């Protein structure tokens, strides 16, 4: 991911200030949640009674908010989870680098936005079981899936991805780092890059939003110099570390919607291969 997979942490005071300054929204997950006519499937505590508090970046197609509703894959998953738990939702859109600290500091119950589970994050937040897969792909004109074919060529990618360190060690100055996947895609469109290394979810979404280009993507083949191609990324939902009951409920809900096919349908809605609903552990 990209910026949303950064491990940089900000202070709780900074998060509190961002919560006031940046876009926030709250909305009912379901009218019955507030009326008392709903029977929750699980019992767990939340930051604010009766509400699931969510922090996430603006990161299509995985998480978007227009100020009153959540959209994107994670938006729909967490909306459904909140409804099943008889909770309203309270959403704050913050920069990606601030999301995990918000959950760590107790300002939010759960993070949205396609977060990869890592050992470093496990020290400060809880992490659910894998939700859906998000492997790296090579975007370009008639792209090859073999990074070796791009040795000495200019490749763009977004800062914060799991593969950045390995990629730059291999490609050196030929690797261009960007602040956002949109910037990578624009330079691909403008012919400033030979290829882009992107997460399949973001690549598929941007290609669908820009029909008629000569660009396409190929899933990267495993190469020993980039670990993330050997063990492709999966996403999860980071939650407050001491709230084991919340983590168990999230895991149970993910199992439910995976078995029912609902998760695959959500992914398909946003132009993502529904096979991603069955991630490797």
How would you summarize this macromolecular structure in one to three sentences?
Helix content is 35%, strand content 16%. It is α/β, with parallel strands linked by helices and 281 residues long.
Question: What does this protein look like?
Answer:
35% of the residues lie in helices and 16% in strands. The chain is of the alpha/beta class. It has two domains: 2-132 and 235-276, Periplasmic binding protein-like II (D-Maltodextrin-Binding Protein, domain 2); 136-230, Periplasmic binding protein-like II (D-Maltodextrin-Binding Protein, domain 2, 3-Layer(aba) Sandwich). A five-stranded mixed beta sheet has the order 9-8-10-7-11, with helices on both faces. Helix 1 crosses helix 4 and helix 3 (72-84) runs antiparallel to helix 11 (262-269). The protein is elongated and about 60 Å long. The two termini are 18 Å apart.
